[in-house]
Amino acid sequence: MRAVIQRTLHARVVVDGEVVGRTDRPGLLVYLGVTHGDGPADVAWTARKIWELRVLREERSAVDADAPVLVVSQFTLYGEVRKGRRPSWSAAAPGPVSEPLYEALCAELERLGAHVERGRFGADMQVESVNDGPVTMLLDSPR
């Protein structure tokens, strides 16, 4: 499981002109990719790491700051671009595998106490954010 975590002042996701998820105060925007072999252990580890990572101002975590988390599915995080000009998506898990894990990660964050907003899985989304810092972290679950 791979996550790109951004510290934001605010963020929102728009699908077909409709805002489907938003944070109106400082928090985290998380782009989440799922690969083959990811499972419940990856979900639990990644959710806890996102929730407790001290990347907000004054070295606080989202749990410390009661900060919202906007989670957006993004299979392109597993795109392979080292060869040729066309990305390969073979490392990304297909929708029937990745959607339940995306939903499980959002649910686990909520279980931990996070206010979670979501993008819309599989949709053509426009994501708007103001990165604070800028702070952007790459997180891969352990194997």
From TrEMBL:
Keywords: Cytoplasm, Hydrolase, RNA-binding, tRNA-binding. Pfam families: Tyr_Deacylase (PF02580). Its main location: cytoplasm. It comes from the Bacteria. A motif (Gly-cisPro motif, important for rejection of L-amino acids) lies at residues 133-134. InterPro entries: Daa-tRNA_deacyls_DTD, DTD-like_sf. Its EC number is 3.1.1.96, 3.1.1.-. It is found in: Cytoplasm. Homodimer. An aminoacyl-tRNA editing enzyme that deacylates mischarged D-aminoacyl-tRNAs. Also deacylates mischarged glycyl-tRNA(Ala), protecting cells against glycine mischarging by AlaRS. Acts via tRNA-based rather than protein-based catalysis; rejects L-amino acids rather than detecting D-amino acids in the active site. By recycling D-aminoacyl-tRNA to D-amino acids and free tRNA molecules, this enzyme counteracts the toxicity associated with the formation of D-aminoacyl-tRNA entities in vivo and helps enforce protein L-homochirality. A Gly-cisPro motif from one monomer fits into the active site of the other monomer to allow specific chiral rejection of L-amino acids. NCBIfam families: D-aminoacyl-tRNA deacylase (TIGR00256). This is D-aminoacyl-tRNA deacylase. It comes from Nocardioides cremeus.
